Amino acid sequence: MTASKVECTPLEAGGFRLIETELPGVCVIEPRLIRDERGFFMETYHQAKFARLGIRENFVQDNHSRSCRGTLRGLHYQLRFPQAKLCRVIEGEVLDVAVDIRRGSPFFGRWVAVQLSAANHRQVLISAGFAHGFLVLSESAQFLYKCSEFYRPEDEHGVLWNDPDLQIAWSIKDPLLSEKDSAYLPLAKLPAELLPVYRP
Known about the structure:
Elements: E1 3-4, E2 6-13, E3 16-21, E4 26-30, E5 34-36, E6 39-41, H1 47-52, E7 61-68, E8 72-78, E9 85-91, E10 93-100, E11 111-117, E12 123-126, E13 130-136, E14 140-147, E15 156-158, H2 179-182
Parallel strand pairs: 1-11
Antiparallel strand pairs: 2-3, 3-4, 4-12, 5-6, 7-14, 8-13, 8-15, 9-12, 9-14, 10-11, 10-13
């Protein structure tokens, strides 16, 4: 089970640049910045322009977290009410990771990592059916993400962050974890009925 790197095959629409990754279902989005002596302006989301890029998710909830250096949140997913996520950072820097955990997927067990920061203004779109997590690389980070489904605590599941089969290159051995995140099982030990199904 190996990593995927970002490949530069961009599409553009209305100032947004979409870059596919080697993991179908995960892509990087770069907004156009307008700068002057006062600072900058950018659109972070525009439904019609995203639709021209092939992104037609209906986002229903926005989340915002602030975390200190070394915090790792993940790897999370919802099963019966899967969430697509559009993620960005407005303070600091994180390593954002998505893992394909869909049963029957030709990319099952593969992951991709993208650095998101307040400086690079990048966003990452993660389709439903992927497990998601991030590691804070800076002194602190504010992480914002839109979800295509409401958060339902009774439907939340996860994969162990340091699953030895996945070999995610987190570059940290002892992150700050919640009790819940540290107790998740490796992907290979999750019952099949607790994994989403790949639908081409």
